[in-house]
Amino acid sequence: MNWKLVLAILTCNILFMSSSYTMLVPFLPMYLTMELGVSQADVNIWSGIVFSASFLVSAIMAPIWGKMADTKGKRIMAMRASFLLSISYFLGGIVQSPEQLTLMRLFQGFASGLWPMDLAIMTLYAPASRLGFCLGIMQGTLTAGGVVGPLLGGILAEAVGMRYSFFLASGALFLNFLVFTFIIKEPPTPAKTEATKDDIPDATECSPWRMPLLRNMLLCGTLVQMVILILQPVLTTYVAKLAGPLPNIVFVAGLVFSLGGIAGAMAAPVWGTFGQRRGFFKAMCLGMTGAGISMIIQGIPDTLVPFAIMQFVGGLFFCGIHPAINAILASNTPPSYKGRIFGMLFAAQQVGSMAGPLLGGLIATYLGMHWVFALSGIILLLLSTAVWRRYHAMPC
C-alpha cells in the first residue's frame, strides 16, 4: 500500500479513537451521579477507581499485545483492539451500577493497544525521509481528538444523554475495526540481507533492558506523560481561583485546558518535519525546554488571561516531545521489534498517566497549586538537560 494512503486512513482512525475516548472520560463523574445513582459524597472515590482501573490493566497488557503483534501481525492486533474497544464502549452504555462501570473500564484496559499498533504500522510503511512528518501528523490528530471529544461529549450529553455517547463511540471503534479488516494490509517487514544482518540487532538484542537508549526513551515517555496529566486534579480549582466568581466555571476550565490541545494539533506536524531535518533529539530537547519554561510561568499569573495564553504556548512545545520519542524508538529498533517497543512505550505512558494526577493532587494539597507548575517545569528542564548532554550529537 502507498504510505500516503496509509497515513490518511490511520489519521481518520486515530481521530475516531481519540475523540471517542475524550468525549466520555471527562464526564465519568457526571455519568456516575446522573445515570448510576452515586451520591455526591462518594463520587470522588468512585471516579478515581473508575478512571485508574483502565490504566492499570493496559500498562500490564500493552507489552504482551506488542509482542504478539511482532509474532502474529500488527494488523490483526489493531483489529483485536478496535473490536474489543467497540464492545467495551457498548457495555459502558448499558451498565447499571458503578461496580459494573469499573468492570467495563478494566475490560477496556485489557482491550487497549490501538495507538501503539497505529504507530508500528505507520513506521513500517513510511519512508525514512518522511517518518517525522508522518508521526507529527498522527500526534497532531491524537491531540485534535482530545479537543473535539469533550466538546462533542458535552453536546451529546445535553441533547440525548450520556449513554448515547457510549453507543456512538462503540460505532466509531467498530468502523475502525472494519477499516483494518478490509482496507489496511499487514505492513511489509524487510528481511535482513547478508550486508545488513550484522548491523541491525535482532529482537532479543535490542531489548530495552539491554540498550540504554531504548530504556531511557521509555523513561522519558513516562515522565513526560506524568507531567502532561499532573494538572488534571487541580486545573478546575486553579482556574476558578484565577477567574473569580464566573458562571459555568467547568466550561471555562475545559476551554482553557483545550487551548493546549488546539496549539498541539497545529504545531505537531511542524515539529515532526523539524525533527526530520535537524534531528529528533534536538526537537525533543527543544520541546521539553519550551514546555518546562511555559509550565513554570503558568504558575505565576494571578489572572486568567495570561494563564490561558501560557496554556496555549505550552501546547506548542509539548506536542513536539512525543513524536520525537516515537521517531527515535522507530529508528533504533528493527521491524520485527516495533510492536513490542511501542507496546512498552504505551505501558510506560500509562504508568505516567496514573502517577501524574496522584502527584499533582499531593503537591497541591501539601505545597500549594503554584508548586504543581513549578515542579513540573523543573522536571522537564532537568530531563531536557540530561537528554541533551547524552544524545544531542547523535544523528537521529
Compile the SSE list and pairings.
Layout: H1 3-22, H2 28-34, H3 43-72, H4 74-92, H5 98-111, H6 114-125, H7 131-159, H8 162-182, H9 212-229, H10 235-243, H11 249-278, H12 280-298, H13 304-318, H14 321-331, H15 338-366, H16 369-391
Structure overview:
Helix 2 packs across helix 3 and helix 10 crosses helix 11. The chain is mainly alpha-helical and 396 residues long. The chain has 2 domains: 184 residues, MFS general substrate transporter like domains (Growth Hormone, Chain: A), CATH 1.20.1250.20; 189 residues, Growth Hormone, Chain: A (Up-down Bundle), CATH 1.20.1250. The longest helix is centred in the N-terminal third of the chain and has 30 residues. The protein is built from 16 helices and no strands. The radius of gyration is 21 Å and the shape is globular.
Q: Assign the CATH architecture of the largest domain.
A: Up-down Bundle
Number of strands: 0
Strand and helix order: HHHHHHHHHHHHHHHH
Helical region count? Answer: 16
CATH superfamily of the largest domain: MFS general substrate transporter like domains
Summarize the biggest pleated sheet.
none
Structural class category: mainly alpha
Instruction: Please state the oligomeric state of the protein chains shown.
Output: single chain
Tell me the CATH topology of the largest domain.
Growth Hormone, Chain: A
In whole angstroms, the N-to-C terminal distance is 26 Å
Rg (C-alpha, Å) = 21 Å
What count of domains describes the coordinates? 2
